[in-house]
Amino acid sequence: MYGGFRGNIVELYSMYKIVKPNVILKCVKCGQIYTPKPRLFLCPKCGSLIDVIINVEEFRWNKARERRFGVWRYRELLPIRDEVEPVTLGEGGTPLIKLRNVYERGIVDSRNVYVKFEGANPTGSFKDRGMTVGVTIAKYLGVEGVVVASTGNTAASTAAYAARAGLRCLVVLPQGGVARGKLAQALLHGAEIKEVEGSFDSALEEVLDKVLNEELSGYYPLNSFNPWRLEGQKTISYEIVDELGTTPDFVIVPVGNAGNISAIWKGFKELYELGLINDLPRLVGVQAEGAAPIATAWFRGLTEPLFIDKPTTIASAIRIGRPINWFKAMRAVKESNGFFVTVSDEDILNAMKILAKYEGIGVEPASATTLAALIKCVNEGKISRDDLVILVATGHALKDPDTVFRAIPA
C-alpha cells in the first residue's frame, strides 16, 4: 500500500541541485542503499521506510553558534545544500524550561526536569521544524503544491510554509476530528481542506492513494513517511545538547504517527557518532490508553504494533491507530534501552493543568502526556528523582481551546 513511485526527470535533476552530494537513502530494514530521489519514500526492494543518511566530515559547535539559534544553525547536519535558500519562518530555538514549582510543591518527585516547549515555534508546534526542510525541497522541485493528511498540527504548519513558499496546499482531515485552533490556522493560511470519514488513518490512506495513483502528480506529499521532513525534526536533539552542554538521561516524547521520536533519536545518534556527545539518552514513548497500538505491542513483547481501527483519546494530535513510522519508533526506543508508557485521558488533563497552573507553560493535551508519563514513571521507580529528564511538549495550548474549556470551565 505504501510503495514508492517515480518522479519525473525534472524533479530528479532538481533534487541533484537541492541535496548535498554526501547524502544517500537507506532502507530501515533491508539496508539497501539508494541515491536521493524526491519521491522515493519506501524501499522498492522490501517496501519499508527509508532513512536519510548524511556523511558529515566535520561539525563544530563554535561555528554553528555564530548563526541564529534554530533549525538552520545546524546546516552541516541537514541534507540541503548551503547555496539553497531555505523556506523559513524562524523555526526552532524553542525554550528549554526547567520545572521548579512542581518539585518544590511535591507534585513531581523529580528535580532535574526540563520542558522543550515546541509550542513556541511559528505555528505553535514541532511540525515547523520538518516543514522548513520539506517545503524547501518542494519549492525547488518546482511542484504546484504540497499535500498532507493531518490531525491538525501538520495542516497548520504545512499551510503556513506553503504560503511562505508560494505553493498551493491541500489538506485532508478526518471529519470532526481536528481541534478548531488548528483548523483555523490552516484556513487562515489559504489551505484547501478536504474532509473524509473516519480517523487520521483514513485521511492518510486517501492521500497515499491519490499520490501513488498520480492523481496529485503536481503535489508533493509531506507526511512523516517523507524522510526529508524528519531531518528538520531531529534538530530538537541538537538544541537540547547545544543548550544543556550535556546529554539528558531520559527524553520523553508523545507518540502518534511515530515520526518525531525516531527523528529525535536520529539526532542524538548523529551527535554521538560525530563524537560530540559521550552518552546517549533513553527514550520514553508515550501513548494515550485509547490510542496505543505501539505501546500495547511493546508491553506484550511483540515486534509489530497492534493496530486500532477506532482510536480514542482527548489528545487529538496522537489519536492515531495505524502509525506509519511504527518500525522506526520501536527501533529507536529499543536501541536507546528505553520503553513505552500509556497514560489515561484523566492523567493527561491533570498534567496539562499542572503545567499551566504551577509552571506557566500552556500545552495541548498530547504534549501533557509527557508530564503524565514522568509522574507515572517516577512513582513506579523507572525514573529517579536525580535523573536529567527532557519532556518534549509538542504543541501550544491554544491549538485546542475547546479541550481547555472542558478541562477548566469558564
Q: Please, could you describe this protein's structure?
A:
This protein has 410 residues and is of the alpha/beta class. It has a domain at 96-124 and 229-407: Rossmann fold, CATH 3.40.50. Helices cover 38% and strands 15% of the residues. It is built from 15 helices and 13 strands. Strands 4-5-13-10-11-12 form a six-stranded mixed sheet, with helices on both faces. A four-stranded parallel sheet has the order 8-7-6-9. A hairpin with a 5-residue loop joins strand 1 (23-27) and strand 2 (33-34). The protein is globular and about 60 Å long. The termini are far apart. The model is unreliable at 1-7 (pLDDT under 50).
Shape: globular
CATH architectural arrangement of the domain at 96-124 and 229-407:
3-Layer(aba) Sandwich
> What are the segments in which pLDDT stays under 50 over at least 5 consecutive residues?
1-7
Q: Sheet with the most strands?
A: 6 strands, mixed
Query: CATH topology of the domain at 96-124 and 229-407, anyone?
Result: Rossmann fold
User: Gap between N and C termini, in Å?
Assistant: 46 Å
The number of E-state strands comes to: 13
Radius of gyration: 20 Å
Mean pLDDT level: 93
What amount of the residues lies in strands?
15-25%
Structural class: alpha/beta
List the secondary-structure elements in sequence, H or E: HEEEHEHEHEHEHEHEHHEHEHHEHHEH
What percent of the residues sit in helical stretches (DSSP H or I)? Answer: 25-40%
CATH class of the domain at 96-124 and 229-407: Alpha Beta
* Secondary structure tally, helices: 15
Strands of the largest sheet, in order across it? 4-5-13-10-11-12
